[in-house]
Amino acid sequence: MTPVWLQRSELVDIWEKVQSGTRLSDADCLRLFQSNDLPAIGYMANHVRERRHGNVAYYILNRHINYSNICILDCDFCAFYRRRREPGAYEFTIEEMVAKAREALQLGITEIHIVGGLHPSFKWDYYVTMLRELKKLDPRLHLKAFTAIEILHLSWVGKRSVTETLAALKEAGLGSLTGGGAEIFHPEVRKVICHAKESAEEWLDVHRTWHRMGGRSTCTMLIGHVERPEHRVDHLRRLRELQDETGGFTAFVPLAFHPANTKLAHLPGPSGADLLKTLAIARLYLDNVDHIKAYWILMGIKLAQVALGHGVDDIDGTVMEEKIYHMAGATTPQMIPQQELVRAIREAGREPVQRDSLYRPVTSLPGPAHEASAGASQIIRSSSAVYAGAGNEGGAA
Ligand code: SF4
Question: Which percentage of the chain shows pLDDT scores above 90?
Fold first, then answer.
Protein backbone atom coordinates (compact mmCIF):
# COMPACT_ATOMS: atom_id res chain seq x y z
CA MET A 1 0.00 0.00 0.00
CA THR A 2 1.62 3.24 -1.10
CA PRO A 3 0.66 6.38 0.84
CA VAL A 4 -0.88 9.07 -1.36
CA TRP A 5 1.92 11.53 -0.64
CA LEU A 6 4.52 8.96 -1.73
CA GLN A 7 2.60 8.26 -4.95
CA ARG A 8 3.27 11.89 -5.86
CA SER A 9 7.01 11.69 -5.08
CA GLU A 10 9.61 11.87 -7.83
CA LEU A 11 11.03 8.76 -6.19
CA VAL A 12 7.95 6.55 -6.56
CA ASP A 13 9.70 4.26 -9.08
CA ILE A 14 12.44 3.60 -6.51
CA TRP A 15 9.75 2.81 -3.95
CA GLU A 16 8.38 0.18 -6.32
CA LYS A 17 11.83 -1.42 -6.50
CA VAL A 18 12.18 -1.26 -2.72
CA GLN A 19 8.82 -2.96 -2.22
CA SER A 20 9.65 -5.77 -4.63
CA GLY A 21 13.16 -6.27 -3.20
CA THR A 22 14.84 -5.26 -6.48
CA ARG A 23 18.44 -4.12 -6.03
CA LEU A 24 18.89 -0.37 -6.53
CA SER A 25 21.22 0.75 -9.32
CA ASP A 26 24.01 3.30 -9.01
CA ALA A 27 21.75 5.72 -10.91
CA ASP A 28 19.01 5.18 -8.31
CA CYS A 29 21.53 5.84 -5.55
CA LEU A 30 22.65 9.06 -7.21
CA ARG A 31 19.04 10.25 -7.58
CA LEU A 32 18.47 9.59 -3.89
CA PHE A 33 21.52 11.67 -2.93
CA GLN A 34 20.41 14.45 -5.29
CA SER A 35 16.87 14.47 -3.91
CA ASN A 36 15.79 16.49 -0.89
CA ASP A 37 12.69 14.35 -0.37
CA LEU A 38 13.89 13.17 3.02
CA PRO A 39 10.39 12.03 4.12
CA ALA A 40 10.18 9.66 1.13
CA ILE A 41 13.76 8.39 1.50
CA GLY A 42 13.31 7.90 5.24
CA TYR A 43 9.97 6.12 4.74
CA MET A 44 11.48 3.70 2.23
CA ALA A 45 14.49 3.01 4.43
CA ASN A 46 12.27 2.42 7.43
CA HIS A 47 10.24 -0.09 5.39
CA VAL A 48 13.41 -2.07 4.61
CA ARG A 49 14.68 -1.75 8.16
CA GLU A 50 11.46 -3.13 9.64
CA ARG A 51 11.31 -5.89 7.03
CA ARG A 52 14.79 -6.96 8.12
CA HIS A 53 14.90 -6.26 11.85
CA GLY A 54 11.31 -5.71 12.93
CA ASN A 55 11.21 -3.28 15.81
CA VAL A 56 14.57 -4.20 17.32
CA ALA A 57 17.34 -1.64 17.81
CA TYR A 58 20.79 -2.74 18.94
CA TYR A 59 23.31 -1.25 21.31
CA ILE A 60 26.52 -2.52 22.87
CA LEU A 61 28.37 -2.04 26.14
CA ASN A 62 31.80 -1.03 24.94
CA ARG A 63 34.78 1.13 25.74
CA HIS A 64 36.94 3.02 23.28
CA ILE A 65 40.68 3.33 23.83
CA ASN A 66 42.73 5.50 21.47
CA TYR A 67 46.21 4.31 22.41
CA SER A 68 48.08 7.30 20.93
CA ASN A 69 47.40 10.32 18.74
CA ILE A 70 51.00 10.58 17.54
CA CYS A 71 50.94 10.01 13.81
CA ILE A 72 53.37 10.18 10.91
CA LEU A 73 50.61 11.34 8.53
CA ASP A 74 48.77 14.65 8.45
CA CYS A 75 45.36 14.06 6.89
CA ASP A 76 43.66 17.40 6.25
CA PHE A 77 40.33 16.36 7.80
CA CYS A 78 41.92 15.08 11.03
CA ALA A 79 42.03 17.04 14.28
CA PHE A 80 43.25 14.06 16.29
CA TYR A 81 46.85 13.63 15.19
CA ARG A 82 49.89 15.32 16.75
CA ARG A 83 53.59 15.17 16.07
CA ARG A 84 55.59 13.59 18.87
CA ARG A 85 56.65 16.75 20.75
CA GLU A 86 53.61 18.85 19.91
CA PRO A 87 51.33 20.02 22.74
CA GLY A 88 48.51 17.55 23.21
CA ALA A 89 50.49 14.55 21.96
CA TYR A 90 49.98 11.47 24.12
CA GLU A 91 50.60 7.74 24.20
CA PHE A 92 49.30 5.13 26.60
CA THR A 93 51.43 2.43 28.08
CA ILE A 94 50.04 -1.06 27.96
CA GLU A 95 49.59 -0.91 31.73
CA GLU A 96 47.42 2.21 31.33
CA MET A 97 45.31 0.51 28.70
CA VAL A 98 44.88 -2.59 30.83
CA ALA A 99 43.82 -0.41 33.78
CA LYS A 100 41.18 1.35 31.65
CA ALA A 101 39.92 -1.97 30.34
CA ARG A 102 39.82 -3.54 33.80
CA GLU A 103 37.73 -0.65 35.11
CA ALA A 104 35.36 -0.91 32.16
CA LEU A 105 34.95 -4.66 32.57
CA GLN A 106 33.45 -3.99 35.96
CA LEU A 107 30.66 -2.18 34.09
CA GLY A 108 29.86 -5.23 32.00
CA ILE A 109 31.41 -4.20 28.68
CA THR A 110 31.81 -6.90 26.07
CA GLU A 111 34.00 -5.01 23.58
CA ILE A 112 37.01 -2.72 23.51
CA HIS A 113 37.36 -0.56 20.42
CA ILE A 114 41.01 0.35 19.79
CA VAL A 115 42.43 2.74 17.18
CA GLY A 116 45.26 5.23 17.16
CA GLY A 117 47.64 7.20 14.96
CA LEU A 118 50.47 5.69 12.92
CA HIS A 119 53.06 5.91 15.65
CA PRO A 120 56.61 6.60 14.45
CA SER A 121 58.45 4.38 16.94
CA PHE A 122 56.14 1.84 18.61
CA LYS A 123 57.50 -1.60 17.84
CA TRP A 124 55.54 -4.63 16.72
CA ASP A 125 55.65 -6.01 20.26
CA TYR A 126 53.65 -3.05 21.59
CA TYR A 127 50.62 -3.97 19.50
CA VAL A 128 50.80 -7.71 20.05
CA THR A 129 51.41 -7.34 23.78
CA MET A 130 48.53 -4.85 24.01
CA LEU A 131 46.11 -7.41 22.55
CA ARG A 132 47.49 -10.28 24.65
CA GLU A 133 47.36 -8.35 27.92
CA LEU A 134 43.83 -7.07 27.28
CA LYS A 135 42.67 -10.54 26.36
CA LYS A 136 44.19 -11.93 29.56
CA LEU A 137 41.70 -9.83 31.53
CA ASP A 138 38.90 -11.97 30.13
CA PRO A 139 39.19 -14.24 27.09
CA ARG A 140 35.56 -13.42 26.20
CA LEU A 141 36.33 -9.73 25.79
CA HIS A 142 36.07 -8.85 22.08
CA LEU A 143 38.91 -6.67 20.81
CA LYS A 144 37.74 -4.65 17.84
CA ALA A 145 40.88 -2.92 16.75
CA PHE A 146 42.82 -1.09 14.06
CA THR A 147 41.84 0.53 10.80
CA ALA A 148 43.13 -0.70 7.45
CA ILE A 149 45.86 1.96 7.42
CA GLU A 150 47.03 0.83 10.86
CA ILE A 151 47.21 -2.73 9.57
CA LEU A 152 49.37 -1.56 6.66
CA HIS A 153 51.53 0.38 9.13
CA LEU A 154 51.89 -2.66 11.40
CA SER A 155 52.72 -4.77 8.39
CA TRP A 156 55.59 -2.38 7.67
CA VAL A 157 56.64 -2.15 11.35
CA GLY A 158 56.55 -5.92 11.77
CA LYS A 159 58.09 -6.67 8.36
CA ARG A 160 55.27 -9.07 7.58
CA SER A 161 52.81 -9.36 4.72
CA VAL A 162 49.27 -8.14 5.38
CA THR A 163 48.10 -11.75 5.66
CA GLU A 164 50.86 -12.61 8.14
CA THR A 165 50.17 -9.43 10.10
CA LEU A 166 46.46 -10.17 10.40
CA ALA A 167 47.14 -13.80 11.31
CA ALA A 168 49.58 -12.79 14.06
CA LEU A 169 47.19 -10.17 15.45
CA LYS A 170 44.34 -12.67 15.38
CA GLU A 171 46.47 -15.14 17.28
CA ALA A 172 47.20 -12.41 19.85
CA GLY A 173 43.49 -11.70 20.35
CA LEU A 174 42.22 -9.45 17.56
CA GLY A 175 38.48 -10.09 17.29
CA SER A 176 37.46 -7.85 14.41
CA LEU A 177 38.71 -4.90 12.37
CA THR A 178 37.29 -1.41 12.64
CA GLY A 179 35.97 0.30 9.52
CA GLY A 180 37.80 3.62 9.82
CA GLY A 181 40.12 5.08 7.24
CA ALA A 182 37.85 4.48 4.26
CA GLU A 183 36.96 8.22 4.14
CA ILE A 184 35.81 8.63 0.51
CA PHE A 185 37.40 6.14 -1.85
CA HIS A 186 37.47 8.29 -4.97
CA PRO A 187 41.03 9.52 -5.74
CA GLU A 188 39.76 13.04 -6.55
CA VAL A 189 38.66 13.38 -2.93
CA ARG A 190 41.50 11.39 -1.36
CA LYS A 191 44.13 13.65 -2.85
CA VAL A 192 42.44 16.67 -1.19
CA ILE A 193 41.63 15.32 2.26
CA CYS A 194 44.19 12.54 2.86
CA HIS A 195 46.70 12.45 0.03
CA ALA A 196 49.24 10.27 1.91
CA LYS A 197 46.78 7.69 3.14
CA GLU A 198 46.30 4.24 1.64
CA SER A 199 44.36 3.99 -1.61
CA ALA A 200 40.84 2.65 -1.87
CA GLU A 201 42.23 -0.58 -3.30
CA GLU A 202 44.58 -1.01 -0.34
CA TRP A 203 41.74 -0.38 2.16
CA LEU A 204 39.51 -2.87 0.39
CA ASP A 205 42.34 -5.42 0.13
CA VAL A 206 43.01 -5.36 3.88
CA HIS A 207 39.34 -6.03 4.58
CA ARG A 208 39.13 -8.64 1.80
CA THR A 209 42.12 -10.47 3.29
CA TRP A 210 40.64 -10.35 6.78
CA HIS A 211 37.24 -11.55 5.57
CA ARG A 212 38.87 -14.46 3.71
CA MET A 213 40.46 -15.47 7.01
CA GLY A 214 36.97 -15.68 8.49
CA GLY A 215 37.15 -12.26 10.17
CA ARG A 216 34.44 -9.64 10.28
CA SER A 217 34.73 -5.88 10.11
CA THR A 218 32.65 -2.75 9.75
CA CYS A 219 32.77 -0.24 6.91
CA THR A 220 32.47 3.53 6.95
CA MET A 221 32.19 6.63 4.75
CA LEU A 222 33.26 10.11 5.86
CA ILE A 223 30.72 12.67 4.66
CA GLY A 224 30.30 16.42 4.62
CA HIS A 225 33.61 17.79 3.29
CA VAL A 226 34.56 18.18 -0.38
CA GLU A 227 32.86 15.09 -1.78
CA ARG A 228 30.03 15.18 -4.31
CA PRO A 229 27.06 12.78 -4.54
CA GLU A 230 28.87 10.90 -7.35
CA HIS A 231 31.78 10.21 -4.99
CA ARG A 232 29.44 8.81 -2.35
CA VAL A 233 27.80 6.52 -4.91
CA ASP A 234 31.20 5.29 -6.08
CA HIS A 235 32.18 4.64 -2.44
CA LEU A 236 29.03 2.71 -1.59
CA ARG A 237 29.28 0.71 -4.84
CA ARG A 238 32.79 -0.47 -3.92
CA LEU A 239 31.61 -1.49 -0.46
CA ARG A 240 28.61 -3.34 -1.88
CA GLU A 241 30.82 -5.16 -4.39
CA LEU A 242 33.24 -6.32 -1.69
CA GLN A 243 30.33 -7.41 0.47
CA ASP A 244 28.93 -9.42 -2.45
CA GLU A 245 32.32 -11.08 -2.68
CA THR A 246 33.05 -11.80 1.00
CA GLY A 247 29.98 -11.08 3.16
CA GLY A 248 32.38 -9.95 5.89
CA PHE A 249 30.98 -6.54 6.81
CA THR A 250 28.71 -6.58 9.83
CA ALA A 251 27.62 -2.95 9.63
CA PHE A 252 27.95 0.29 7.72
CA VAL A 253 28.64 3.49 9.66
CA PRO A 254 28.57 6.93 8.02
CA LEU A 255 30.96 9.26 9.80
CA ALA A 256 30.21 12.97 9.96
CA PHE A 257 33.15 15.24 9.18
CA HIS A 258 33.83 17.58 12.11
CA PRO A 259 35.66 20.61 10.65
CA ALA A 260 36.85 22.34 13.86
CA ASN A 261 40.61 22.23 14.46
CA THR A 262 41.32 20.69 11.04
CA LYS A 263 42.92 22.13 7.92
CA LEU A 264 39.43 22.07 6.39
CA ALA A 265 37.88 24.18 9.16
CA HIS A 266 36.33 26.54 6.58
CA LEU A 267 33.90 23.79 5.50
CA PRO A 268 30.55 23.49 7.28
CA GLY A 269 30.38 19.71 7.77
CA PRO A 270 27.21 17.72 7.11
CA SER A 271 23.76 18.86 8.21
CA GLY A 272 21.45 16.70 10.29
CA ALA A 273 19.27 16.17 7.22
CA ASP A 274 22.28 15.02 5.21
CA LEU A 275 23.24 12.54 7.91
CA LEU A 276 19.72 11.12 8.07
CA LYS A 277 19.52 10.92 4.28
CA THR A 278 22.88 9.15 4.05
CA LEU A 279 21.90 6.60 6.70
CA ALA A 280 18.60 5.98 4.88
CA ILE A 281 20.26 5.67 1.46
CA ALA A 282 22.80 3.24 2.90
CA ARG A 283 19.93 1.07 4.13
CA LEU A 284 18.36 1.13 0.67
CA TYR A 285 21.47 0.69 -1.48
CA LEU A 286 23.59 -1.59 0.74
CA ASP A 287 21.08 -4.42 0.55
CA ASN A 288 23.76 -6.94 1.52
CA VAL A 289 24.87 -5.24 4.76
CA ASP A 290 22.72 -6.29 7.70
CA HIS A 291 23.21 -3.37 10.05
CA ILE A 292 23.21 0.40 9.56
CA LYS A 293 24.64 2.24 12.53
CA ALA A 294 23.97 5.79 13.71
CA TYR A 295 27.10 6.47 15.73
CA TRP A 296 25.55 8.64 18.47
CA ILE A 297 28.87 10.10 19.63
CA LEU A 298 29.25 12.11 16.45
CA MET A 299 25.63 13.03 15.74
CA GLY A 300 24.24 13.26 19.27
CA ILE A 301 21.79 10.90 20.90
CA LYS A 302 18.79 13.00 19.80
CA LEU A 303 19.56 12.68 16.09
CA ALA A 304 20.45 9.01 16.60
CA GLN A 305 16.93 8.53 18.00
CA VAL A 306 15.44 10.08 14.85
CA ALA A 307 17.74 7.90 12.74
CA LEU A 308 16.06 4.81 14.20
CA GLY A 309 13.10 5.76 11.96
CA HIS A 310 15.34 6.31 8.91
CA GLY A 311 16.75 2.86 8.29
CA VAL A 312 19.03 2.57 11.31
CA ASP A 313 18.96 -0.47 13.61
CA ASP A 314 22.03 0.22 15.79
CA ILE A 315 23.15 3.27 17.79
CA ASP A 316 26.50 1.88 18.99
CA GLY A 317 27.40 1.86 22.64
CA THR A 318 28.54 3.29 25.90
CA VAL A 319 31.95 4.34 24.40
CA MET A 320 33.25 5.89 27.69
CA GLU A 321 36.19 7.82 26.27
CA GLU A 322 36.36 9.24 22.76
CA LYS A 323 39.16 11.45 21.55
CA ILE A 324 39.00 11.52 17.76
CA TYR A 325 35.78 13.52 17.39
CA HIS A 326 36.20 15.47 20.56
CA MET A 327 39.56 16.85 19.45
CA ALA A 328 37.62 18.03 16.38
CA GLY A 329 35.19 19.95 18.53
CA ALA A 330 32.41 17.40 19.04
CA THR A 331 30.21 18.61 21.90
CA THR A 332 28.48 15.31 22.57
CA PRO A 333 29.30 13.56 25.87
CA GLN A 334 32.10 11.00 25.70
CA MET A 335 30.03 8.33 27.36
CA ILE A 336 26.47 7.31 27.91
CA PRO A 337 25.16 4.96 30.57
CA GLN A 338 23.38 1.80 29.50
CA GLN A 339 20.05 2.92 30.86
CA GLU A 340 20.19 6.12 28.80
CA LEU A 341 20.82 4.13 25.64
CA VAL A 342 17.91 1.88 26.53
CA ARG A 343 15.67 4.86 27.28
CA ALA A 344 16.66 6.65 24.05
CA ILE A 345 15.79 3.56 22.01
CA ARG A 346 12.47 3.04 23.81
CA GLU A 347 11.53 6.72 23.41
CA ALA A 348 12.09 6.29 19.67
CA GLY A 349 9.52 3.48 19.69
CA ARG A 350 12.00 0.62 19.29
CA GLU A 351 12.79 -2.42 21.37
CA PRO A 352 16.38 -2.27 22.73
CA VAL A 353 18.56 -5.36 22.43
CA GLN A 354 22.04 -5.48 23.87
CA ARG A 355 24.33 -7.08 21.30
CA ASP A 356 27.87 -8.38 21.20
CA SER A 357 30.39 -7.37 18.53
CA LEU A 358 28.91 -9.83 16.03
CA TYR A 359 25.31 -8.72 16.68
CA ARG A 360 24.38 -11.73 18.77
CA PRO A 361 21.99 -10.75 21.56
CA VAL A 362 23.62 -10.66 24.97
CA THR A 363 21.12 -12.53 27.04
CA SER A 364 23.13 -12.98 30.19
CA LEU A 365 25.70 -10.72 31.68
CA PRO A 366 29.33 -11.82 31.73
CA GLY A 367 30.42 -13.90 34.69
CA PRO A 368 33.51 -14.23 36.84
CA ALA A 369 35.62 -11.47 35.33
CA HIS A 370 32.77 -9.04 35.94
CA GLU A 371 32.20 -9.54 39.59
CA ALA A 372 29.85 -6.58 39.84
CA SER A 373 27.36 -8.34 37.58
CA ALA A 374 24.94 -9.98 39.93
CA GLY A 375 22.10 -8.96 37.63
CA ALA A 376 21.12 -6.60 34.87
CA SER A 377 19.60 -4.00 37.12
CA GLN A 378 22.65 -3.99 39.35
CA ILE A 379 24.93 -3.37 36.39
CA ILE A 380 22.68 -0.58 35.23
CA ARG A 381 22.78 1.05 38.64
CA SER A 382 26.51 0.62 39.15
CA SER A 383 27.41 1.78 35.65
CA SER A 384 25.23 4.83 36.14
CA ALA A 385 27.11 5.77 39.28
CA VAL A 386 30.56 5.28 37.77
CA TYR A 387 29.70 6.97 34.49
CA ALA A 388 28.26 9.95 36.28
CA GLY A 389 31.41 10.33 38.32
CA ALA A 390 33.72 10.00 35.34
CA GLY A 391 31.62 12.39 33.33
CA ASN A 392 31.83 15.09 35.94
CA GLU A 393 35.55 14.60 36.29
CA GLY A 394 36.08 14.93 32.56
CA GLY A 395 33.64 17.79 32.23
CA ALA A 396 31.95 15.92 29.40
CA ALA A 397 28.61 15.03 30.84
S1 SF4 B 1 43.28 10.29 10.10
FE2 SF4 B 1 44.57 8.70 11.06
S3 SF4 B 1 46.29 8.49 9.65
FE4 SF4 B 1 45.33 10.46 9.16
S5 SF4 B 1 46.46 11.97 10.41
FE6 SF4 B 1 44.64 11.34 11.60
S7 SF4 B 1 45.42 9.70 12.91
FE8 SF4 B 1 46.92 9.95 11.24
Answer: 85
Atom 7 of ligand 1, residue of closest alpha carbon:
117
Mutate to test the pocket of ligand 1, among 75, 82, 122 (most ligand atoms within 8 A of CB): 75
Q: Which atom of ligand 1 is nearest to the CA of 69?
A: 7
CA-to-CA distance for 339 and 189, rounded, in angstroms? 40
Q: What is the pLDDT of residues 303-313, one digit of tens each?
A: 999 999 999 99
Angle between helices 26-34 and 229-246 (to 10 degrees): 140
pLDDT tens per residue, range 149-173? 999 999 999 999 999 999 999 999 9
Q: How do the domains of the chain map onto residue ranges?
A: 49-394
Is the pLDDT assigned to residue 252 strictly greater than 90?
A: yes
The CA distances from residue 309 to 18, 46, 47, 75, 204, in Å, are: 16, 6, 9, 34, 30
Residue 354 has pLDDT above 50, yes or no: yes
Please provide the CATH number assigned to the domain covering 49-394: 3.20.20.70
Residue 55: per-residue pLDDT:
98
Residue 55: alpha-carbon gap to chain centroid: 22
Q: Is residue 80 lining ligand 1, measured as CB closer than 6 Å?
A: yes
pLDDT of 22 reads 98
Ligand 1: does its nearest atom lie under 6 Å from the Cβ of 255? no
Ligand 1: residue of 71, 74, 76, 153 to mutate (most ligand atoms within 8 A of CB) is: 71
Mean local confidence (pLDDT), 116-141: 97
> What pLDDT is stored for residue 266 in this prediction?
96
Cα 74 to ligand 1 centroid, rounded to whole Å? 6
pLDDT mean over 50-67: 97
